[in-house]
Design goal:
With about 230 residues, this protein is α+β, with helices and mostly antiparallel strands. The protein has five helices and seven strands; from the N terminus they run H-H-H-E-H-E-E-E-E-H-E-E. The protein is globular.
Length: about 230
Amino acid sequence: MIVKMTNRLLLLIFINLIFINCHEPSTSAEPSYEGPPTENIISTERAREMYDAYSQRRVPLIQKYEDSIASDSSNFTPTRYVEYDLKTIKQYIAYIEHEAMQANVDINTLRFYLSNYPNSDKFNNGDAVKYPKRNSFFVVPTMEHEGKNVGFSIEQIDGKYTAVPINRSNAVKEDQQDKTQSESSGDLNEAGFFASNNTAVQGDENSLILNDGTMVPPPGSDDFGDNN
């Protein structure tokens, strides 16, 4: 009798363990801390030196040009930094990693493109321009494609998540694009990834490009220069 009860008890414990393991929620643990990226961290002194170089060599040129084409007498103040809260950055990293995993592709790098908002209240698609005329940047994840490191987006083609290079060629426009490139800036490399973009999207596109942070000035505080 005692043996039967013991066996039943062990069986119940075994079943409970299986049940718990099967229903235990999956958690994605933070990667273990491996120390700072020493090859990429710069000192405050170097940051200030680089900041000052931009102030001397770029800010006056930007300001002079924008003031020269202004329709009113207002003075243009070039953007000095763009910021995101940490939660947004973590959410963005989690998003692109999830999308890349769905498409079975590895993210190589994050590419930061310098950019400029148009001098308009709206983009071509009708979306509002948050910071007309101001310089900014946007972030593009890259992948390995045909021996090159290229920016990519995700498209659902025939119901399947597919990583597609942003600079994929449009055969219909290839001759025209080659002519435009030769007349303007020469050969195209992967940095100029929009020049040969195929606007005829094959499926539903999931963009992985990050932009629209908080831009300063104005208003805000500047860690290396004057407060605005």
